[in-house]
């Protein structure tokens, strides 16, 4: 899962990056509204954490532009502003959730996971899909009740397929959501991860539809 943090306070941004990486996200960071608008308009994210008090272009304007352009990534607003009218303005502009500063990182990561689940049409953090159980909160996977040890990248792939369990996910989409801008988005690298996962999960769990993409076997 891929997240964008838009925050001009570097200390807060570093704490946010650490917290979201610990929650299983691959994270990118920008510090001003103009860059944020460009990134959100041109890249696909599973979550955007957006501060309102930004240089060059304020967060509310950025959010309005994203929504007008069709960007539907879940957006969690952060702000030091406490007025309820500003919270209403943020929600009306298209924010999915709102967290006033100061806040606990544990609350932020819980809200982040919930937003990603809801975007995938899921309510519960534990998803049973055929023989595989994916716990999005604990970042754990079991097959037939047996725990499977995965790397962060391997878990991100399984989690993304679980969040989109009703369809086959194209390789290009997986590459967008598994890797950040600073990582190589090569089809061969994705195929290598899929090969390792098949060895760990066992046969028949991770499906390939030639020419279409990947999915999880729901046992039906």
UniProtKB/TrEMBL annotation:
Residue intervals of the OmpR/PhoB-type domain: 124-218
One Pfam short name: Trans_reg_C
InterPro entries registered for this protein in UniProt: CheY-like_superfamily (IPR011006), OmpR/PhoB-type_DNA-bd (IPR001867), Sig_transdc_resp-reg_receiver (IPR001789), WalR-like (IPR039420), WH-like_DNA-bd_sf (IPR036388)
DNA-binding region(s) from the entry: 124-218
Keywords assigned by UniProt, alphabetized: DNA-binding, Phosphoprotein
PTM sites of type 4-aspartylphosphate: 51
Signal peptide range in chain numbering: none
Residues covered by the Response regulatory domain: 2-116
Superkingdom of origin organism: Bacteria
Alphabetical list of PANTHER family matching this protein: REGULATOR OF RPOS (PTHR48111), RESPONSE REGULATOR PROTEIN CARR (PTHR48111:SF37)
Protein name: Response regulator transcription factor
Lineage: Bacteria, Pseudomonadati, Pseudomonadota, Alphaproteobacteria, Rhodobacterales
């Amino acid at each position: 899962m891929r997240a964008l943090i838009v925050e001009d306070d570097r200390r807060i941004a570093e704490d946010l990056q650490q917290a979201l990486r610990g929650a299983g996200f691959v994270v990118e960071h920008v510090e001003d509204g103009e860059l944020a608008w460009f990134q959100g308009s041109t890249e696909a994210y599973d979550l955007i954490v957006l501060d309102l008090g930004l240089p060059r272009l304020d967060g509310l304007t950025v959010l309005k532009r994203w929504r007008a352009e069709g960007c539907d990534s879940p957006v969690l607003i952060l702000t030091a502003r406490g007025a309820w009218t500003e919270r209403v303005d943020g929600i009306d502009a298209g924010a999915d959730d709102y967290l006033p500063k100061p806040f606990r990182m544990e609350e932020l990561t819980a809200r982040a996971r919930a937003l990603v689940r809801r975007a995938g049409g899921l309510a519960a953090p534990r998803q049973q899909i055929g023989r595989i159980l994916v716990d999005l909160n604990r970042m754990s996977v079991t097959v037939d009740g047996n725990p499977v040890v995965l790397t962060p990248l391997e878990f991100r792939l399984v989690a993304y397929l679980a969040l989109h369990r009703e369809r086959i996910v194209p390789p290009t989409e997986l590459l967008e959501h598994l890797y950040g801008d600073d990582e190589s988005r090569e089809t061969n690298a994705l195929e290598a991860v899929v090969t390792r996962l098949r060895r760990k999960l066992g046969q028949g769990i991770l499906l390939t539809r030639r020419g279409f993409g990947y999915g999880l076997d729901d046992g039906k």
